[in-house]
Amino acid sequence: MKPFSMEQMYQELGISEQIRRFGEKAEAQLRERFEEIQKTAEYNQLKVIAAMQKCRVSAECFQTGTGYGYNDIGRDTLESVYAHVFHTEAALVRAQITCGTHALAVALAGNLRPGDELLSISGKPYDTLEEVIGIRPSAGSLAEYGVTYRQTDLLEDGNFDYGGIRAAINERTKLVEIQRSKGYQTRPTLSVAKIAEAIAFVKKIRPDILVLVDNCYGEFVERAEPSDFGADMTVGSLIKNPGGGLAPAGGYIVGSKECIDRAAYRLTSPGLGREVGASLGVNRDFFQGLFLAPTVVAGALKGAIFAASLYGRLGFAVVPDAEESRHDIIQAVEFGTPEGLIAFCRGIQAAAPVDSYVAPEPWAMPGYDSDVIMAAGAFIQGSSIELSADGPLKPPYAAYFQGGLTWEHAKLGILRSLQSLADQGIVRMEELCEG
Ligand SMILES: *Cc1c(COP(=O)(O)O)cnc(C)c1O
Predict the structure, then answer these.
(1) Ligand 1 neighbour 189 (Cβ under 6 A)
(2) For residue 51, what are the β-bridge partners?
(3) Tens-place pLDDT, residues 341-366
(4) Cα–Cα distance between 142 and 112 in angstroms, integer?
(5) Is residue 351 part of a domain?
(6) Rounded to the nearest whole angstrom, what is the distance from the C-alpha of residue 104 to the centroid of ligand 1?
(7) Which of these, 85, 132, 164, 388, could form a disulfide with 152 (CB 3.0-4.6 Å)?
(8) What's the CATH code of the domain at 362?
(9) Mean pLDDT, to the nearest integer, of 378-404?
């Protein structure tokens, strides 16, 4: 049989010739941007390999510990690789850290004591942290343990409110939290340079204040990480960027030895800390996922920019736009109607390698005040380094999407989403031709 042409391959996956061409045109204009992303991936790939070499990663590291997990060399070596990559004294990288929220909760609870105050300087933290902190009353929250909370919002232009931060810091301020990614907000994501400036500002006021950065979705997007600029703890999820799509679960905390030890005493138990916690077979996936992470993140970034370009051309509001600098892998597209948001998510789902035949439906979810639609055809449940999208069914009907283990898949997913909008008559074919 004569092999299919590229056009036929896309047709087989449900992409019309018109949409494919529209995508090609957009992609051609992104070449320079993509090259820059490849350079960052190259830099970060070297950073990860150098760390693995320095830490003498060996085949033995892929064996697993059981029981208490004493002397689990794979786990211990992995943690020292993370410490090298992030340039910190220590790291806690475990499957026993169940997700990003858990990693943040362990880092906070391990390092705060009754009477201390936690100050968020990037505005309202990620939704799930509201219950960790006790902003929304919750059993076991920091508030229940007598840790108070204060927050300074970012300024209108997305910058830190330095005057407000100075005024909010008092003798009880123990820990300052900075969230790098916008999460489900419309503010811009903070660059590492801006975070570095804020850390320096806080440390100048009181050097003993601990600074924690929620680094979710930011890892390997830039050449430096917040940990390079004095963050005492930098925290994230392994089913996002640093797991490279292979980590089956887990979270990480990197930082000063003191902070990491205190977090470990909280995660396992006082006295035991990092010494226990069997790796239970995940070591190789953690190593190999970290090894792949820089290029996986590059693919996801290209996908985000491609989507911004495509949907931007069609007149939809996109945050960030195709030209802006990027500091995380999240892309928001506002559809303005429930039909648009639903069609988009269904297109993303239809392009997935897993569960492509199911059509996502909007549904009520705990913690949300409106129905939510989610598209995820992932190998790892809930993994958002894999191509995934979701959005609440309320104005402005924005889809937040991220990931893509390969650029090629991200591209297909975005084209398929556009096809889905065109099939519903939400995007008109003439607009595609003009674009
Ligand atoms: C995803 C995320 C979290 C929480 O991570 P989970 O793994 O979903 O618990 C926290 N903060 C930010 C900014 C995130 O993007």
Answers:
(1) no
(2) none
(3) 999 999 999 999 999 999 999 999 87
(4) 8
(5) yes
(6) 9
(7) 164
(8) 3.90.1150.60
(9) 95
Q: Are residues 153 and 23 in the same domain?
A: no
Is the shortest distance between the CB of 279 and ligand 1 below 6 Å?
A: no
Give the 3-state secondary structure percentages of the chain, helix then strand then coil, rounded to 5.
45, 15, 45
Q: Are 133 and 101 in contact (CB under 8 A)?
A: no
pTM value > 0.90:
yes
Work out the pLDDT band at 16, boundaries 50, 70, 90.
Answer: very high
Q: Which of 104, 127, 128 to mutate to test the pocket of ligand 1 (most atoms within 8 A of CB)?
A: 128
Closest-lying ligand 1 atom to the alpha carbon of residue 180: 13
pLDDT confidence of residue 428 = 85
CATH number of the domain where residue 92 is located: 3.40.640.10
Give all strands (DSSP E) within 328-412, no chain letters. 331-334, 363-364, 371-376, 388-392, 398-402
Question: 360 CB under 6 A from ligand 1?
Answer: no
> Using 50, 70 and 90 to split pLDDT, how confident is the model at 434?
low
Q: Is 243 in the pocket of ligand 1 (CB under 6 A)?
A: no
